[in-house]
């Protein structure tokens, strides 16, 4: 189906992003490319899918990419993208202001397929991926995980022969991952081959049969899934957390003063049945705590932090920040007490340089400063998170990993008592986890607190000192992490407890 | 009345042009001003979203149009008593016209425009241009608001400040808005390429299109896990 030989890709810098990559995906094969964040997975997949060089120019490209024996550069675009379905790591790059059903039907409508056939396919995909609750909504108003499911449905809509997915489980809750896995297994009848990249090799273990590691710009030889998953060394050498690792030693929590207190919070934003998204929510976050918040996609996690920040209007309830009543505060005043690191940092960047963003986090008013103390602090934060060399770069030119690190640097620099970190995706590899640990230590050791929103339950298990489960509009569980995994609330989610079962090969 | 939102885009467009024609044909301010007020009231009655923002803009537009006409006529030697009805009539025409097209723009999603144009078998280029022309302004406005929220979420006080500062901060959103507009254009062109949009091939639509455009896919959910 797909053959790649001696592929070299570079952006004009001293080192290539991908060097001498050779691999193939046969009919019926499901190949997983695993690598640390920033290892070149996205660039490689873009070339494999024909996006490079057909749609995306790149300064250095050499090697051969052939699809069914024909060089992709000679295949007409329409034929190429009818054969290859693609979902980008950053799904916002391929979605615009359409409704959910419009976005899924878009590829079929463009290809002139009959209305009845489109409707039948829509029904199949909506049912298979459980997208019915999202119908009628604009895709750009959905949560990150919901958007990704819509983009995957759109990629599947035209029954491509080769499906290329770049980190498709990003932002998906465990149940949504299982739905995706099931859909991809069921799609085997029509989708001949699958090429997928992930940082977490276990997330699609029931789908893939072959795994290739991308390390130091080069692809490894292919491994059979069941041969490599139980191992530790190849993963660590590739900078990835081994999928079969065991639970780490938990740090003892030492909570201090209350930094954030929510009581009786009910939102104005309501669901289609008229019920508020959040009802009578109450909790505290204390100094020195790393509190994890988990819940299904669409449970209201985004609405909760927007309510805390004052960006979503509430019907009732009160918020205390650092001991002060914050009910009458503007969003900006609250933000100086609660730093926010979103899943996609591009949502909150608006300055023209990386150092400018950090300076802005400190000053909350300007991206330039004559104050040496501010400049020194900003430079120190960039150094702490390995971004010194990018101080003058435009933030929108950064990779996903660099953006995530910039988010941590900004939150740390802001000095707010509480930081809300939404799905820190960089934490899935060894170096990213080290950076997140640096951030957590910096926050907690200085008497601040972190609220971590994540679907990565192993990350939650590793770093959280307390667990909250958001379900049915409220905090359904609030307590110790280990108690949380054993609670009826967690059981009701239908998710597997982290570290409870060995993650060897086989269908989950 | 919200069913008006689901009218076929071309019907809405025809209605808007009809309203504009009436607004420019009615003689003088005695008919023009009540007609403009009626147009705004209709927007309110049919629940057009973002009406508060539109009214603010309309008041600003009224003030600017009247001021410019009064100054213009003053320099031509027309007295204030004679100039005022002329300026009011001109402002009323613009308010009625903008209200009509605001209704079209706010109640027509790019998807519903694509559906109406595809059902009418318009050439793909016309379909694309219409959906982007009417869809891009709400998209950019949403981005403008999102950037403001980003500024707030980063601690920048854009609310509890004097009006000149507020205006300065709003202007400062121009550069990130430009960056966002470029990204949006890239996302649209990228999705057109990978999702098979072809200028030589007429599109179809999943929606039932007639006088009304089906607003959402019908679903009777018996297995919803949530």
From TrEMBL, chain A:
Source taxon at top rank: Bacteria
Keywords: ATP-binding, Nucleotide-binding, Transport
Family, as annotated: Belongs to the ABC transporter superfamily.
Domain ABC transporter per the UniProt entry, residue ranges: 2-241, 260-497
GO cellular component: ATP-binding cassette (ABC) transporter complex
One GO MF term attached to the UniProt entry: ATPase-coupled transmembrane transporter activity
Pfam families: ABC_tran (PF00005)
Transmembrane segments: none
The protein's name in its UniProt record: Sugar ABC transporter
TrEMBL record, chain B:
Domain of life: Bacteria
Bilayer topology term: Multi-pass membrane protein
InterPro entries according to UniProt: ABC/ECF_trnsptr_transmembrane, ECF_transporter_component
Transmembrane segments: 7-26, 32-51, 58-78, 84-105, 112-137, 177-197
UniProt-annotated location(s): Membrane
UniProt entry tagged with the keyword Transmembrane: yes
Short name of any one Pfam family annotated for the protein: CbiQ
Keyword Transmembrane helix: yes
Segment forming the signal sequence: none
GO cellular component annotations of the record: plasma membrane
Keywords for the protein's UniProt record, in alphabetical order: Cell membrane, Membrane, Transmembrane, Transmembrane helix
Family: Belongs to the CbiQ family.
Entry protein name: Energy-coupling factor transporter transmembrane protein EcfT
Organism of provenance: Mesorhizobium helmanticense
């Amino acid at each position: 189906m797909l053959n790649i030989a001696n592929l070299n890709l570079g952006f004009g810098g001293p080192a290539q992003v991908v060097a001498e990559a050779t691999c193939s995906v046969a009919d019926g094969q499901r190949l997983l490319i695993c690598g640390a964040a920033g290892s070149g997975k996205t660039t490689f997949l873009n070339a494999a899918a024909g996006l490079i060089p057909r749609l995306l120019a790149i300064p250095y490209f050499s090697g051969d990419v052939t699809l069914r024996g024909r060089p992709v550069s000679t295949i007409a675009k329409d034929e190429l993208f009818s054969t290859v379905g693609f979902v980008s790591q950053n799904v916002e790059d391929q979605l615009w202001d359409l409704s959910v059903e419009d976005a899924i039907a878009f590829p079929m409508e463009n290809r002139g397929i009959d209305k009845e056939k489109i409707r039948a396919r829509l029904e199949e995909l909506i049912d298979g991926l459980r997208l019915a609750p999202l119908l009628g909504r604009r895709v750009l108003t959905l949560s990150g995980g919901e958007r990704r499911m819509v983009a995957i449905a759109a990629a599947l809509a035209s029954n491509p022969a080769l499906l290329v997915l770049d980190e498709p489980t990003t932002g998906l809750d465990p149940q949504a991952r299982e739905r995706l896995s099931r859909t991809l297994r069921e799609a085997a009848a029509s989708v001949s081959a699958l090429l997928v990249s992930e940082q977490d090799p276990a997330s699609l273990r029931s789908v893939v049969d072959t795994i290739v590691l991308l390390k130091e710009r080069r692809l490894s030889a292919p491994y059979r899934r069941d041969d490599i998953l139980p191992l530790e060394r190849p993963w660590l050498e590739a900078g990835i957390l081994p999928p079969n690792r065991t639970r780490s030693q938990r740090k003892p929590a030492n909570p201090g003063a209350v930094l954030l207190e929510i009581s009786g919070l009910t939102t104005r934003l309501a669901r289609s049945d008229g019920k508020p998204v959040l009802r009578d929510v109450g909790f505290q976050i204390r100094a020195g705590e790393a509190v994890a918040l988990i819940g299904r996609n669409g449970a209201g996690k985004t609405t909760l932090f927007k309510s805390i920040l004052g960006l979503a209007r509430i019907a009732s309830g009160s918020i205390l920040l650092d001991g002060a009543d914050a009910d009458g505060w503007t969003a900006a005043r609250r933000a100086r007490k609660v730093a926010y690191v979103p899943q996609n940092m591009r949502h909150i960047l608006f300055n023209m340089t990386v150092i400018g963003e950090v300076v802005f986090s400190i000053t909350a008013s300007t991206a330039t400063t004559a104050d040496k103390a501010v400049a020194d602090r900003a430079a120190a934060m960039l150094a702490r998170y390995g971004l010194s060399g990018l101080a003058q770069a435009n933030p929108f030119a950064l990779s996903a990993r660099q953006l995530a690190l910039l988010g941590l640097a900004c939150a740390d620099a802001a000095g707010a008592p509480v930081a809300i970190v939404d799905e820190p995706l960089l934490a899935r590899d060894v170096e990213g986890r080290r950076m997140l640990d640096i951030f957590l230590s910096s926050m907690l050791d200085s008497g601040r607190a972190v609220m971590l929103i994540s679907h990565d339950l192993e990350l939650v298990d590793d770093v959280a000192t307390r667990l909250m489960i958001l379900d049915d509009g409220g905090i359904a569980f609030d307590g110790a992490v280990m108690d949380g995994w054993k609670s009826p609330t967690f059981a009701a989610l239908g998710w597997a407890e982290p570290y409870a079962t060995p993650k060897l090969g086989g269908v989950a | 009345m919200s069913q008006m939102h689901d009218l076929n885009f071309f019907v809405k467009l025809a209605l808007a042009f009809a309203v504009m024609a009436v607004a420019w044909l009615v003689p003088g301010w005695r008919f023009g001003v009540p007609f403009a007020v009626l147009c705004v009231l209709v927007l309110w009655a049919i629940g057009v979203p973002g009406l508060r923002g539109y009214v603010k803009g309309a008041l600003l537009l009224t003030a600017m149009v009247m001021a410019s006409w009064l100054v213009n006529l003053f320099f031509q030697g027309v007295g204030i008593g004679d100039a005022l009805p002329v300026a009011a009539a001109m402002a009323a025409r613009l308010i009625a016209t903008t209200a009509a097209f605001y209704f079209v723009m706010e109640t027509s999603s790019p998807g519903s425009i694509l559906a109406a144009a595809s059902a009418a078998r318009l050439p793909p280029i016309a379909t694309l241009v219409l959906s982007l022309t009417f869809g891009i302004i709400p998209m950019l406005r949403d981005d403008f608001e999102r950037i403001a929220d980003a500024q707030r979420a980063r601690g920048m006080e854009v609310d509890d400040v004097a009006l000149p500062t507020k205006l300065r901060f709003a202007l400062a959103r121009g550069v990130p808005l430009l960056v966002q507009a470029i990204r949006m254009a890239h996302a649209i062109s990228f999705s057109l390429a990978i999702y098979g949009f072809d200028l030589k091939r007429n599109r179809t639509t999943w929606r039932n299109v007639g006088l009304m455009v089906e607003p959402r896919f019908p679903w009777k959910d018996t297995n919803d896990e949530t």
